[in-house]
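User: Sequence for Lipopolysaccharide export system permease protein LptF below. Tokens please.
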Amino acid sequence: AVVLLIIFVGYSLSRFLTQADAGLLNTGEVIRLTLLKVLIALEVLLPIALFFGLMLGLGTLHHESEIVAMQASGISESRMVRAVVTLAIPLALVIAALSIFVRPWAYTQTYQIRSIAEASSDIDRIKAGQFYLTRKTADSVEAAMSDETAPGDKKTPRQEQKSQIGEDQERAIFVEKISVDQALDRIFIRTRIGKELQIVSAQTGDFIEQPGAQYHLLELKNARIFKRVDDGPDLIARIDHFTMNVTNEQPEPPGYKVKSIATAKLALSRRPKDRAEYQWRISTPITTLLLALLAVPLSRSRPRQGR
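Assistant: Structure tokens for Lipopolysaccharide export system permease protein LptF:
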């Protein structure tokens, strides 16, 4: 079990560290997601570990003719089966608890962590020297051109942007260097909302977090701006001081996720996916007992046959 657990932890860490390297997760989220992933995997790893453990143990007894000696001393095979079942039943109960109660809780926590990570600001998680791309469909996407003006500049009617409902939003960010005091050097940001395209580049900048506000602020110096709109002329500008609003998104509820639903609710559901998830949770303790019983005949070997 320990070997399987180490292999699985290494596999999970490699996946989450890849996302952390891309700025999608921080260190704390990687650790928590890995631990939750291990909790979820225990319902599969423990039955497999029991099966191989029984195979190895009983196979050794057959190879060393210990089973023959035990049978000669009056210990029947049914008694050995009872011993195996006695060992498997407590483990099956543990696995039932993991599958029925721990599994939905762990998935709920996983979805919440993912939601918080996705709601975090793009600039706050960006790594220097690599492109960072995000895509999402917003129910309401507000362009911030009305606030993205140089001090003293007069706002034009086009800078008062209306909400765009259901538009796909894509943002690509590149920062060449981030100093120790979190100052940004050589910034490139391309934002596409529907058919509108905005490209901003700047020599230096600072990211100002505003935890209680609707937006974080990205202050850029010596910025160059290109904006293309679907129903009007393109905009090209060079601004000494340019402020962008970066939406301070709140974590959204994960919605209906089958794996996070309580087992009691799944038992009453008629949806095929819900029924499949319910049957999986119920089957894991039964599978544990079946694997333990299956290990008894599979571990048999003839004298001098080898393992």
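Residues 77-119 form the longest helix (43 residues).
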